[in-house]
Structure formats: structure tokens, C-alpha cells
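Aim 2 progress update. The chain analyzed this quarter is reproduced below.
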Amino acid sequence: MKHEALIAWTSLYIAVGAMALICAVLAVVVTVHDWQSRAWRPKLATKLDAALLLPKVWLRWQINYLKGAPVILTVALYFASDVGFHVFWNI
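Predicted C-alpha cells:
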């Protein structure tokens, strides 16, 4: 692999990883805010509802996390086009 391509791929992986981490943290913040503001509150009326609380919270977090996927994809594609797509294929 050529040095220029290696640097480009490494930079892309670091950038996408950092954006995914930011997106995960923001998804936690939004999930907690939704719970506290009562915009989303799972039912806890029965023992089954209480047992399913963790999967419901996890699913809500996943929905909030996936809302950031288009932004991550857009930034990654913009970075790749700025560097030049030919650099990534020049292995």
C-alpha cells in the first residue's frame, strides 16, 4: 500500500471513529433528555414492563444514534472527495 493511501485511509478511520463516538454520546444525552422531559417514557405498570425496560431504553438509544448516521456518512464522503477518491483507490 502506498504511503499516501495509508495516511488517507487512517485519517478517514480516525475521523469516522471520532464522529461515531460523538454521535453515541449525543444519543445518550438525547435519550436522557427525552426521559426527563417526558417526551418519551416507557410504561412500568407490570413486572414484564419493568423487565423490558433495558431493551426499550437500548432501542430508543439506537434510534437516536442512527439519526446521526447521515451526518457521519456526509462528512466522510466530503473528506474523501476533498482528499480525492483516486488516493483511496491507489493502493
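The longest helix spans residues 3-36. The chain has a mean pLDDT of 94. These observations will guide the mutagenesis experiments scheduled for the next reporting period.
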